[in-house]
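Inverse folding, one chain.
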């Protein structure tokens, strides 16, 4: 007779496989029961002038402080150049410039110089000027001199070796302000960011300079356009909108420092520049038209934020007559964007080089107005809302905080979270009221990593995105913030940021690649994706495109161990025998990318076998995954 304890052990062993199966993590996808339509504008971009995002970032201009600012240290960026025994003095001259908008210029007084010993000024750009081999650079400057006909030599020179990458001579300077253009063509030189642009003369004279500019080849070869490598990174995200011109950048520290759009259009020489809220000067080369052309280049729609009478230093305009000029300014701005060439501001846009109007559907009134201590936003929003709707009834109006009295079409909500908060907030919108305004998550990020997010942050971001995707009937738009950071010392005011760069190179963070994975694998309908017995830090969402018979399943495994999910594709007759699995993972949650190691954490694509409508798939530790199947 068997020992009773042995019988008990055998009985338990016999039950073990069934018990494990019953408790194993599973994911059920109800393919044939879509719950809602996916918002076609779910994934987009939020941008503003922070971390040298425009000047020193996506805007292609290589010269820093191209028109001398009013700052006490304005000449720090324009040091003198004195070769050999030449003698030169550089000062800021406020007696007038090439236009009423630009009245401060560089006065370069050379008292001794020769062809062998020239003198002048130089500019090091944004932590160096990038030089690449066999590349054509286009430049320009405004100048006048007390000795008409004086030639100006323009040179790109390596700071370390002294080697000249390219040089040219500009002639024709007179006693009156005039714009001069030039090109610099490099040859077989090493790629380097250790360079300055140098402007010199070879004889005693005084020359005045302003609006000195230098551009590399730009995206789509737009004159004065955007930096190509950063635009390529954005294009890979397939964004559907651009929220512009930015959050705090729209408001300014003071009302006089707001994004005054009328001062950002037309020729550069008519743009006076202004101080950004992150305490460096904006050239305003990235003006309203340049934002719109950015949208055009990436086939995005603009989400246009209009200044609504509140600035960060708690300055505000009360609703009523005092606010009317600002409301009219917003109406003029909308007309500049959308008006035909026979309207007042549409004609201005045409004069600026873009006769065709731009598409526009969304207008955001202000930015983060919950911080306005005057609590005037209810009245300010209503005044803008009624005026815009009266003129443009089809536009969707976005409020930046809940308002009383007027129901906005869309409400902008912002979330900056730790990874733990992102995990816990992944279901934030699951039970949200569907009877109110639609939601625009206009700024959000998992704030871990420096200067760009690490893998832990990307896992938090991806978990959060499963919730936005699952609820994209309500959440119609979302955009990570901030988008950019110049990683040089002194270039960052906020961390983390999605994309990092220096003068020569750029890279996407793990969070960037998570965004790419989500935005480029998106169906048109939401289908239920139910996790059972999964660990707390495993998340999932699913969408389908019934027209192409494609199913996208996102699985985030933020745990330290591999997770095998028994996946049941219910309500589908047949699945293709092979699926594509895109996976991004790392050995630790601290794994990250950097300017020197841009590809440490990147997605990897492989094919996986599909054994019918039910099969088990393993997901690596610390991983973001997209399973793409055909049905």
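Residues assigned per position:
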């Amino acid at each position: 007779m068997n020992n009773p304890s042995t019988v008990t052990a055998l009985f338990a062993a016999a039950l073990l496989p069934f018990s494990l199966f019953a408790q194993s993590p599973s994911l059920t996808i109800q393919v044939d029961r879509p719950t809602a339509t996916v918002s076609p504008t779910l994934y987009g971009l939020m941008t503003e002038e922070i971390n040298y995002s425009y000047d020193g970032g996506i805007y292609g201009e290589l010269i820093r402080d191209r028109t001398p600012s009013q700052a006490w240290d304005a000449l720090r960026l324009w040091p003198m150049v004195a070769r050999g025994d030449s003698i030169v003095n550089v000062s800021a001259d406020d007696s007038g410039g090439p236009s009423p908008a630009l009245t401060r210029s560089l006065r370069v007084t050379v008292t001794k110089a020769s062809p062998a010993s020239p003198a002048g000024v130089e500019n090091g750009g944004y932590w160096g000027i990038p030089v690449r081999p066999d590349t054509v650079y286009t430049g320009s400057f405004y100048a006048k001199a007390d000795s008409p006909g004086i030639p100006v030599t323009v040179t790109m020179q390596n700071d370390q070796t002294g080697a000249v990458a390219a040089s040219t001579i500009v002639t024709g300077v007179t006693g009156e302000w005039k714009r001069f253009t030039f090109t610099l063509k490099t040859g077989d030189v090493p790629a380097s960011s250790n360079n300055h642009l140098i402007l010199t003369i070879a004889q005693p004279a005084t020359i005045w300079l302003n609006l000195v500019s230098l551009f590399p080849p730009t995206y789509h070869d737009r004159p004065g356009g955007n930096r190509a490598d950063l635009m390529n990174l954005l294009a890979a995200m397939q964004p559907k909108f651009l929220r512009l011109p930015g959050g705090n950048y729209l408001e300014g520290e003071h009302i006089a420092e707001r994004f005054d759009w009328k001062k950002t259009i037309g020729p550069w020489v008519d743009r006076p520049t202004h101080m950004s809220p992150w305490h460096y000067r904006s050239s305003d080369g990235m003006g309203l038209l340049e934002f719109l052309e950015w949208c055009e280049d990436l086939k995005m729609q603009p989400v246009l934020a209009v200044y609504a009478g509140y600035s960060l230093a708690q300055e505000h305009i009360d609703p009523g007559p005092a606010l009317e000029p600002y409301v009219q300014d917003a109406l003029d701005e909308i007309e500049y964007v959308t008006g035909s060439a026979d309207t007042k501001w549409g004609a201005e846009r045409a004069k600026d080089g873009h006769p065709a109007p731009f598409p526009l559907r969304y207008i955001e009134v202000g930015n983060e107005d919950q911080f306005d201590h005057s609590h005037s936003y209810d009245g300010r929003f209503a005044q803008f809302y009624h005026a815009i709707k009266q003129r443009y009834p089809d536009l969707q109006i976005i409020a930046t905080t809940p308002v009383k009295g007027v129901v906005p079409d869309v409400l902008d909500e912002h979330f900056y979270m730790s990874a733990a908060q992102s995990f816990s907030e992944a279901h934030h919108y699951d039970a949200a009221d569907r009877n109110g305004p639609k939601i625009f998550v206009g700024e959000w990020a998992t704030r871990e990593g420096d200067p760009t997010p690490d893998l832990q942050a990307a896992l938090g971001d991806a978990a959060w995105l499963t919730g936005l995707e699952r609820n994209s009937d309500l959440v119609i738009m979302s955009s990570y913030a901030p988008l950019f950071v110049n990683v040089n010392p002194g270039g960052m005011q906020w961390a983390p940021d999605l994309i990092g760069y220096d003068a020569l190179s750029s890279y996407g963070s793990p969070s960037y690649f998570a965004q790419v994975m989500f935005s480029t694998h998106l169906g048109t309908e939401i289908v239920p994706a139910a996790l059972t017995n999964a660990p707390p830090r495993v998340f999932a969402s699913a969408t389908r495109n019934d027209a192409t018979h494609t199913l996208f399943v996102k699985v985030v495994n933020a745990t330290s161990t591999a997770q095998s999910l028994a996946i049941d594709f219910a309500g589908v007759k047949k699945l293709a025998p092979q699926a594509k699995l895109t996976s991004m993972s790392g050995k630790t949650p601290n794994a990250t990318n950097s300017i020197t190691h841009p590809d440490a954490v990147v997605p990897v694509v492989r094919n996986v076998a599909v054994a019918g409508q039910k099969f088990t798939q393993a997901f690596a530790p610390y991983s973001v995954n997209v399973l793409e199947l055909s049905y």
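Residues 24-40+523-630 form a domain with the Immunoglobulin-like fold (CATH 2.60.40.1180). The first strand starts at residue 26 and ends at 30.
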